[in-house]
Amino acid sequence: MRKSYQNLVEKLTEISRLNGVMNTITWDQEVMMPSGSAYARTGQIAALAGVIHERMTAPALGECLDELKICSDFNTVECCNIREASRQYDLMTKIPKRLVQTLAELSSRGHTIWVQARRENKFNDFSPVIQEFLLLKKEWASCAFPDISPYDANLDLFERGTTAAEISAIFDQLKTTLAPLIHEITHQTYQPDTAFLQGCFPIDKQAALARKISQDIGFQFDKGRMDVSVHPFCGGSDPTDVRITTRYSKDDFVESIYAAIHETGHALYEQGRKIESADLPVSESLTMGIHESQSLFWERMVAQSRAFCTHYFDSFCEFFSDKSQGITVDTFYQAINACKPDFIRVEADELTYPLHLILRFEIERDLFAGNISVNDLPELWNEKMLTYLGIRPPNDTLGVLQDSHWSSGAFGYFPSYTLGAIYACQFYFAMQRELPDVEQFIASGNFVPIKNWLNDKIHSQGKLYSPQELVVKITGEPLNPQHYLSYLEEKYRAIYRLNGL
Ligand SMILES: [Zn+2]
User: Fold this and answer.
1) pLDDT tens digits, 306-321
2) What DSSP state is assigned to residue 323?
3) How far does residue 291's CA lie from ligand 1's centre (Å)?
4) First-to-last C-alpha distance (Å) of the chain
5) Ligand 1 centroid to 31 CA: how many Å?
6) How far is the CA of 292 from the centre of ligand 1 (A)?
7) From residue 125, how far is each of 102, 107, 234, 367, 397 by CA, in Å?
8) 235 CA → ligand 1 middle, Å
9) Which residues are marked as active site?
10) 227 - beta bridge partners?
11) Contact at 8 Å (CB) between 464 and 282?
């Protein structure tokens, strides 16, 4: 049996290394590749994808797993590798090849149609793609997870073990508290001064500050890189080779710096994975929501705190001396946290962001349940924006057409962003109980205890536990949105000088 297990490890290691090559060439495509190489690269990616698919669905791998599944003579780490590899193998082999090909073809065609429909503000050109995906993703669900509802099956890809009913209950709580709070803030006379954040912030200085902060909080530049791409992301091939990207815009200093911090949070998770089992499932990141909890932990819980603003205020004044005249730490902190309902999700602030996600989740859930039709989407979207955020998109480009997710059939992805924010907050409070001086650490620029805590509790745990088990293990209770709501209420009522404190 040891021999079979060794055989499995060899097979999984090879697949992981091939995936590492794939990640490196797709990173290169986004960051470095000359535009004239696109055709050749597409062919290379398709060829490699074919090899990886072959390895992942090879009958020899299935036989090896069948042998191992009947034996109980393994330790926790080995059991985890066998369990995860079996799950992956089952998922890959249960789906008919025809369906895999049709989904891939629609994904590529869908993206092109979406880009044009968004540019021309023509939802009707894009709606047939959503309609087709809906049918295909229902069929996919009936093959992959025949025992659960189609939308739960799609959610399971991103948030294993979490159902739409559970998410609905959490999101309803958020909606009930946040929508009225945002309404109060929008109508409050007192508003933070954000004028000093307007105008030009030289890009070389932004880049220098972003690299400094990323290094300060723990990104290891000898085991990773930070570059520029159209859409910021975190990629790479191994915990010793983590590639993050960000983007700079000379008139939006906050977005650039915080995008860099966000991606650094993802990167710290990747760099913190267990190195001795880097090519095995046990060391892989847990779920989308947990990954997002790590980026948001640094971006929101740490970097948007008063302590962090206090520490970096001098750097801000030094890098951008013409912008900092007459500005105090308090003005800086308030401006970084200003709340203003807007149409675009990716530009939303901490407080309005969850409502953008709740809206998308509700639409997806109702679409899969057959309670609404694709043609209703633009109007439904706009109505929900008005109810939740008090604003109505003037067109579909700023409304239902803004995200790329549905163009590639990624239904069930959106909730992870907000679940991540709730996890991040709950983890932060648990850490504060164990490290009561955390705010002083942040204010003095000592991020080592925080990074070590996250390495120990989350990054090095890989896939050993389910997300539900992990959150209880770390915080002593299941996911509880109440902490997140109290944190938001307290913070934003103070910034906006609202009653109730
Ligand atoms: Zn992220």
Assistant:
1) 999 999 999 999 999 9
2) T
3) 7
4) 63
5) 18
6) 5
7) 19, 15, 32, 18, 12
8) 11
9) 263
10) 245
11) yes
In 10 A of CB 176, how many CB atoms? 10
19 contact partners, CB below 8 Å, separation of at least 6: 52, 237
Residue 238, phi then psi, degrees to nearest 5: -170, 160
pLDDT per position as a tens digit, 94-118 = 999 899 989 988 988 998 999 999 9
Coil vs helix vs strand at 180: helix
Q: How far is the CA of 266 from the centre of ligand 1 (A)?
A: 7
d(CA 205, CA 198): 16
Cα 286 to Cα 297, 361, 478, distances in angstroms: 16, 21, 16
pLDDT tens-digit readout, 241-282:
999 999 999 998 899 999 999 999 999 999 999 999 999 999
Provide DSSP, 98-162.
Answer: HHHHHHHHHHHHHHHHHHHHHHHT-HHHHHHHHHHHHHHHHHHHHHH-TTS-HHHHHHHHHSTT-
Q: Which residues in 200-210 are b (16+ Cβ under 10 Å) and which e?
A: ebeeeebbebb
| Three-class DSSP category at 302 | helix
Task: Give the integer Cα–Cα distance in Å for 140 and 95.
Answer: 7
CA triplet 59, 60, 63: central angle to 5 degrees?
85
Pairing of strands 241-246, 234-238: antiparallel
243 DSSP β-pair partners: 225, 235
Distance of CA 296 to the CA centre of its chain: 8
Instruction: Report the alpha-carbon distance of residue 41 to residue 462 in Å, rounded.
Output: 32
